[in-house]
Amino acid sequence: MGRFVKATDALMAYLTKTGARETAAQAKCREETARMPMAMMQIAPEQGAFMTVLTRLVGARSAIEVGTFTGYSSISIARGLPGDGTLLCCDVNEEWTAIARKYWERAGLDGKIELRLAPAVDTLRQLPAGEQFDLAFIDADKANYPSYYAEVLSRLRRNGVILVDNTLWGGAVADPKASDDNTRAILAFNDMVANDERVESVILTVGDGLTLIRKR
Length: 216
What we know:
Elements: H1 9-20, H2 24-34, H3 45-57, E1 62-66, H4 72-80, E2 86-91, H5 94-106, E3 113-117, H6 120-126, E4 133-138, H7 145-153, E5 156-165, H8 181-194, E6 199-204, E7 210-215
């Protein structure tokens, strides 16, 4: 087995300070979200930084996000888009996305971002058929991951990228005793992607597990 670095609190603090390069809007968004009961749903700063860099690396101009929460991940993606780039955000929670809207505006990114408040599967199926996205981020209810993946993949350009969050699920995917619905859903999704010949993928130990998928 290969070597790995244990993610201690001190190391994570160093990583956030040195490798994340948050904007003021991101830092404020993270701080406000940290006071919420569902704070654990927010991605980590280093994951946001990775997503910004990756968005730029793939030259994304059109992106989509399934599951927006309070906006940290959408800011991360939108920062990596060019001036005329666009990000479509799909969510169902008006209260949480109201916070996102506030920080999009503070970040000067609201002109790049469109929010659609509706079940994401409905939003995705109402989009035109055919390739239209360069990058996608999926971070929503785990049971519907296969549906989100299928709808997004069919609209992703060749060599486009899908990022899928929580694919290690706190380590539960490696626990044979874990049998809750979310763990089973993640395990099934991970197996599905690993066996999908239309893509190549890798699960990164970023945050709670981030799967990077490239469309062949």
